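Listing S7. Sequence submitted for prediction.
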Amino acid sequence: MNQTFNAIKLNEADNVAVALTNIKQGEYLSIKGEDKILQVMENIPYGHKIATVFINKEETIIKYGECMGISTEDIYQGYHVHISNVRGLKEEERVDILKQSSSFNV
């Protein structure tokens, strides 16, 4: 059986997927390795992130299994995750995340 996917999650812990092509509003997101299919709620350019679950305001955005930012607003499943709704980490947040990591030794 030959299946076509239009997105991938880079780590099973991720709460975003990456678009493998331009995806139009109303199309369905098919993530490689997952049975879950969800409707895309706005146009997503190739290479951009899509929320695969509801992400609360001030919740971490997980990509590659790592925190890559903090949401600045609620982000609903199927919506674009980008600079308009994500902020970078403050220095103290980076340090806290590193301290929580099992690979970091103080």
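Caption to Listing S7: primary sequence and predicted structure tokens for the chain studied. The CA atoms of residues 39 and 81 lie 15 Å apart. The radius of gyration is 15 Å.
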